[in-house]
Amino acid sequence: MPFPVQRPRRLRLSENIRRIVRETSLSVNDLVYPVFVTHGKGVARPVEAMPGICNYSIDQLLGVLQEVVGLKIPAIMPFGIPAAKDEVGSEAYADDGIIQQAVRAVKKEYPELMVITDLCLCEYTSHGHCGIVEDGCVLNDPTLELLARTAVSHAEAGADMVAPSDMMDGRVGAIRAALDAGGYENIPVMAYSAKYASAYYGPFREAAGSTPRFGDRKAYQMDPANAAEALREVRLDIEEGADIVMVKPALAYMDVIRRVKDACDYPVAAYNVSGEYSMVKAAAANGWVDERRIVLETLTGIKRAGADIIITYHAIDAAKWIKGL
């Protein structure tokens, strides 16, 4: 109908009208908080490139998680900083590895808090790559055995869910088989199905000490130019037993999130990664943006694109803002 019969502004005139017709609602239930955990006691070492984020020893992490639990954020994703690194990332699957210790402590203190563990080896290998390296190449199939061992060790420690982020072919199937064989058939797998070789990971690599010592990860992480490939990766992971699929990063890949959500009827996670976080923090520190508004707008956009789960370093602040605190 022609103007003035149709006036879209009628549904924007008050906050209550806007609320009642709002298509997308961001909830604390959508959030997962990534944390960095290291050996020692009394450690809360700030990550310079990620204002507000620290590498915590387990005792300090437990204090931080009191706020997470109080805000009813449903889950955390811990990343470990090992005591030592070697060619095969052995602390990743060691019984006394930093993640295994952290999971036990967290589940003892906060049994209701879901712990989703990342399985990648890059933080634990001396070369900084996500698998076994031979003659400068990351070997796919031998790496699967180490990823499966890591998954089982995390499940034994009490992890509620495991999340392979390495992008090795066939890793979801190998992990699913190992979990089932170990009696952990009820542990879900959240697959980093469409993980791109992105420039947005820089601050994370500072926090986790996971920058490759040579080359890059373009031979196993996805080309940022590709979207159809993401759908193939998602289908393969679902066929191998993934319970949740993920797109990483989020902001530059909202079209991929939407295509993945439209193509499958599985829960979709999106990782609002370190570079995305740090850009907002830097701009806010300079007074260039309103941090609260831009964070909530960004997270709402990620959810509107199709994400059911949002992994974000903004989770604590976002939860407070959502609750009006």
Automatic annotation (TrEMBL):
User: Which Gene Ontology cellular component terms are annotated?
Assistant: cytosol
- EC number(s)? 4.2.1.24
Residue positions binding 5-aminolevulinate 2: S274, Y313
Q: For this UniProt record, give its keywords in alphabetical order, as a comma-separated list.
A: Heme biosynthesis, Lyase, Magnesium, Metal-binding, Porphyrin biosynthesis, Zinc
Q: Which residues bind Mg(2+)?
A: E233
Q: Name one GO molecular function term.
A: porphobilinogen synthase activity
Q: Which organism is it from?
A: Pelotomaculum schinkii
Q: Which GO terms describe its biological process?
A: protoporphyrinogen IX biosynthetic process
Q: Which SMART domains match?
A: ALAD
Q: Which residues bind 5-aminolevulinate 1?
A: R205, R217
Q: What residues sit in the active site?
A: K195, K248
Known InterPro entries for this protein?
A: ALAD, ALAD_AS, Aldolase_TIM
Q: Which SUPFAM superfamilies match?
A: Aldolase
Q: Which domain of life is it from?
A: Bacteria
- Indicate yes or no for the key word Lyase: yes
Q: What is this protein called?
A: Delta-aminolevulinic acid dehydratase
Assembly and oligomerization: Homooctamer.
